[in-house]
Amino acid sequence: MSDTAPVPFDYVRTGQVIVLADGPELLVYSGSNDQGMWKAMGSDVYMGVGATESHVLAVDYSGELELYRAIDGHQQSRIATHCTPRRLEVAPGGESAILADDAIVLIRFGGEPQTVEVPGASCLAWSRDGTQLAVGSRDGTLRVLDAASGTPIHIAHLQGEITDLRWRHPNQWAVVTGASVQLYAPSADPEVGLQPVKTVSTEHPILRLAISEDGAVAAVQVRESLVYILELIGDKKVGEVEFQRPLGGLRFGPAHWLAFGFDDGDANRLDVLTGKMTRTQAHVGRAQNAWAMNVRVNHAQVRGVVVGIAAGTSPIAKHNVPKIPKKRKKWFKWVAIAVVLLFVGFLCCGMSGGLGLFILW
């Protein structure tokens, strides 16, 4: 495995579970306390995992897609997809998409796998409601497919290979090419299709992308163990997180909890609003690994962006709550003037033998 190779990893948006795979072993942790819930041993190396509130899915190198009950690990189904998988993405409703060579495979449990040819397919992501699937390609083509039929709804052509992409609230696609995240949204004109909204750039090529549920914050992996935290309103870097081991996955879960997936079945979680950090606890029979995590994030700045979005404002210029000067009561000003005049008057009286005159306002 290379230093930046993806690790089969997922963190449910609603926070119930964290899922990782280590070779043929599937490891599921509680998303609330990071304790091991259950594990399963497959018949081949797992290439991708995904999860919903109620289920965990995993696809192995042979193309077998397995469905487990999230609460206890009971296997409920197994489907042959007849492909060599490279990545698995699962929609909140359980719809699954497998990235294969020059194709994607759409699966709904209870139905037959549907193969859609996509030349040079390199990455994929579901919309929040599971009705659309975006597929990026090595030649820079972005296709947004209707999930039910697999037919393209929108197509856009970007410069450079698309290496990752994510859906962004309320109706945008965040697409990674080189050192940039480009935001695309459907145009009001059907003939235009997708149109660029903005571009957020970094000084290093971006390897992986995650976006918070409200669309306010993005996390981008720029080196094997370095992640930048970006706010997507003012397009600014607000911090970074660095590890002493290679990182293999990024996912935002509930609120603004960001999870980091590593090989050997480990994960960290970070609340980018408060700085609270946690780590998974080893399953029974597995070694408890140790590693360092260095967090340098301006949490107050992140909170400002999040509060601004929740309030329906656009805090682009500043993210700190402005200080409102206290209003002094009018009588205080006149008392201060009177004191000064009294002091001056007494001085004058002393200097002129008591003949000084002053006016009291």
Describe the structure.
This protein is mainly beta and 361 residues long. It has two domains: 9-298, 7 Propeller (Methylamine Dehydrogenase, Chain H), CATH 2.130.10.10; 330-361. Helices cover 9% and strands 45% of the residues. It contains two helices and 29 strands. The protein has helices spanning 299-310, 330-351; strands at 9-11, 17-22, 25-30, 36-41, 46-51, 55-60, 64-69, 75-80, 87-90, 96-100, 103-107, 114-117, 121-126, 132-137, 141-146, 152-157, 162-168, 172-177, 180-186, 194-201, 208-211, 217-223, 226-231, 236-243, 249-252, 257-261, 267-271, 277-279, 293-297. Strands 21-22-23-24-29 form a five-stranded antiparallel β-sheet. The longest helix is centred in the last third of the chain and has 22 residues, at 330-351.
How many helical elements? 2
Low-confidence segments, ≥5 residues, pLDDT <50? 314-329, 351-361
Shape verdict: globular
Number of domains: 2
Number of strands: 29
Mean pLDDT: 88
Radius of gyration: 28 Å
Structural class comes to: mainly beta
**CATH H level of the largest domain: which superfamily?**
YVTN repeat-like/Quinoprotein amine dehydrogenase
Measure the end-to-end span.
84 Å
CATH 2nd-level architecture of the largest domain: 7 Propeller
Major β-sheet annotation = 5 strands, antiparallel
Helix content: under 10%
CATH class of the largest domain: Mainly Beta
Strand order of the largest sheet: 21-22-23-24-29
CATH fold category name of the largest domain: Methylamine Dehydrogenase, Chain H
What share of the residues does DSSP label as strand, in percent?
A: 35-45%
